[in-house]
Write a structure and sequence with these properties.
This is Putative methyltransferase, YaeB/AF_0241 family. Belongs to the tRNA methyltransferase O family. By secondary structure, the chain is mainly beta. It is built from 3 helices and 12 strands.
Length: 239
């Protein structure tokens, strides 16, 4: 069979500039913002006509950070703690025969800026630089199926951590997001509450310090007894 080639219609500019910290599904972190910048010749206003009537969109995208990694018939999903294997087609793992994914994200509108025609999104679970292959409107009467069974992931993950900010982190937060334009405090809180650590971290009970990148910042936090204290919000060296 001849290979099928696809041309990305745009690229995601996301608050998640590193894989660690990305929520495991869309809409678990409502404050997670991104922009989808459309490439020519797809950056035409008429291509979006009628889209303003929809609150959410399906994005079909490429797991670009996994290109060349190959596929795996069995994977260890995070919802099973990374300890039990299931078939790749029973998961949303990125190591697939064709490394594509889908996300239902909130649509906040479009504008034409210096970057070109741009869609504003929220509740994303996408790495910065993700190529998008297509956009489809989310249609609740057809796409939301309340009676559907969800296998080993019947309920959303619990938000277990109580997140606090040190005095130093609060001062740094005020300096980098003084008008709360990026909703940075909310974003940090929501991401940490989802416990972004890999499932195997219970093998390392003595490790309590972690760091992740959001936008151009490195967020450092420390775990206590069901609490997480953000200690530093500093420029990221690897962004």
């Amino acid at each position: 069979m001849d290979p099928i080639a696809f041309t990305p219609i745009g690229v995601v500019r996301s608050c998640f500039t590193d894989k660690f910290g990305i929520p495991r599904q869309a809409n678990l972190v409502p404050a997670a913002r991104a922009r989808l910048v459309l490439h020519p010749p797809f950056d035409r206003d008429e291509a979006l006509q009628g889209l303003d009537g929809f609150s959410h969109l399906w994005l079909i995208f490429v797991f670009h950070d996994c290109l060349g990694a190959g596929w795996r018939p069995m994977v260890r999903p995070p919802r099973l703690g990374g300890r039990r294997k299931v078939g790749v087609f029973a998961s949303r793992a990125p190591y697939r025969p064709n490394p594509i994914g889908i996300s239902a994200v909130r649509y906040l509108g479009a504008e034409r800026s210096s970057d070109g025609l741009t869609l504003h999104l929220a509740g994303v679970d996408l790495l910065d630089g993700t190529p998008v292959l297509d956009i489809k409107p989310y249609v609740p009467y057809a796409d939301a199926l309340p009676a559907a069974r969800a296998g080993f992931a019947p309920d959303p993950p619990e938000s277990g951590w109580a997140v606090t900010f040190s005095d130093a982190a609060q001062a740094q937060l005020a300096a980098v997001d003084p008008d709360d334009t990026r909703q940075l405090r909310t974003l940090i809180t929501q991401v940490i509450q989802q416990d972004p650590r890999p499932g195997y971290m219970d093998r390392y009970p003595n490790r309590t310090e972690f760091a992740m990148c959001l936008y151009d910042l490195e967020i450092r936090w420390r775990l206590g007894d069901r609490t997480a204290r953000v200690d530093a919000i500093v420029p990221a060296s690897r962004v």
